[in-house]
Amino acid sequence: MASFPPRVNEKEIVRLRTIGELLAPAAPFDKKCGRENWTVAFAPDGSYFAWSQGHRTVKLVPWSQCLQNFLLHGTKNVTNSSSLRLPRQNSDGGQKNKPREHIIDCGDIVWSLAFGSSVPEKQSRCVNIEWHRFRFGQDQLLLATGLNNGRIKIWDVYTGKLLLNLVDHTEVVRDLTFAPDGSLILVSASRDKTLRVWDLKDDGNMMKVLRGHQNWVYSCAFSPDSSMLCSVGASKAVFLWNMDKYTMIRKLEGHHHDVVACDFSPDGALLATASYDTRVYIWDPHNGDILMEFGHLFPPPTPIFAGGANDRWVRSVSFSHDGLHVASLADDKTHDGSVYFWATPRQVPSLQHLCRMSIRRVMPTQEVQELPIPSKLLEFLSYRI
């Protein structure tokens, strides 16, 4: 766990504790679960948590009920207990939007998950909307699953029913991300070296193929305003895309090994990337500057060793919702399909930080630097101090 700003020291890391765990059931004869867990996801409104139970099974759990179970019964998973099982959707068909537990068999190994929610005023870019099979309402919550065979399946979270089967990738769908603006625009990253843009309000029509990666694409992430997309893969470069024009903005260079994960800060002013070189970089995506570096090895390996097998594979990175912390995940060599939840540092954001985030949500770095204000304030707004 790292903080931005300030850095989290060793004593603070020690205080972090598990608050709960969801254990995958023992692998049955059909081998549908119980293997390595590649992906987890929270719904945008926090109503659901989803995770691949190690193979082809995805479990959807109402998060509030899950937290209550942790508080009542300790950190151990109770959702698999027959006496304390959460209610299933088919037990009460009259309340569609009441959170229910679902177990979904996706038919193949699940590599990626993403939740998407609909906003009615965000219309499809397709002109002939009267021909659509699906009319997504305001209360719609979808789950996209990326599979080993290159397919993407779209599920109704409230009913657990399959809605769409998107077929175009030729290799593993390694990551999925929905545009945060409620448009139900979905971007998929694949080992076939492409990113594909899908419009779910247009019955899953594929709108665009983004090409530029010369090897596998591992991860992708939208900026909070949905105008920019970051993608990373089996190379040392970080790709930034304009999602209005579907063109590449720039490539960011600095890592010494494959870049495997990326995430924007809540105000869109910062971009975090994680690499097999054991490092996490914090970038200014608007000008390409590296603002801060975190490492999983101290001292950090030299570029020659960082570019090879270093036994500290950093797998993922994510900003906290308040923009004060960055969490990174390293490989611990456990492959049982279980999920563990950790308490994060509790900190009240300062008024200065809240003001900075409010400004940066609407102003890129270039516009901030043109403001007629003192240099120290410019540095603060640009996250340089």
Write a structural description:
- This protein is mainly beta.
- Helices cover 11% and strands 37% of the residues.
- It contains six helices and 25 strands.
- The strands form seven sheets. A four-stranded antiparallel β-sheet has the order 3-4-5-6. Strands 7-8-9-10 form a four-stranded antiparallel β-sheet, with no helix packed on it. Strands 11-12-13-14 form a four-stranded antiparallel β-sheet, with no helix packed on it.
- β17 (237-242) and β18 form a beta hairpin.
- It is globular.
- The two termini are 20 Å apart.
- The relative contact order is 0.12.
Task: Put the structure in a nutshell.
This protein is mainly β and 385 residues long. It is 11% helix and 37% strand.
Compute the number of strand runs.
25
- Largest sheet, strands/sense/barrel: 4 strands, antiparallel
Ranges where pLDDT stays below 50 over 5 or more residues in a row are: 1-14, 78-95
Shape: globular
Q: Kindly state the percentage of residues in helix.
A: 10-25%
Rg is: 21 Å
Please give the count of helices.
6
Q: What structural category do the secondary elements indicate?
A: mainly beta
| Strand order in the sheet with the most strands | 3-4-5-6
Distance between the termini: 20 Å
Strand content: 35-45%
Mean pLDDT: 83
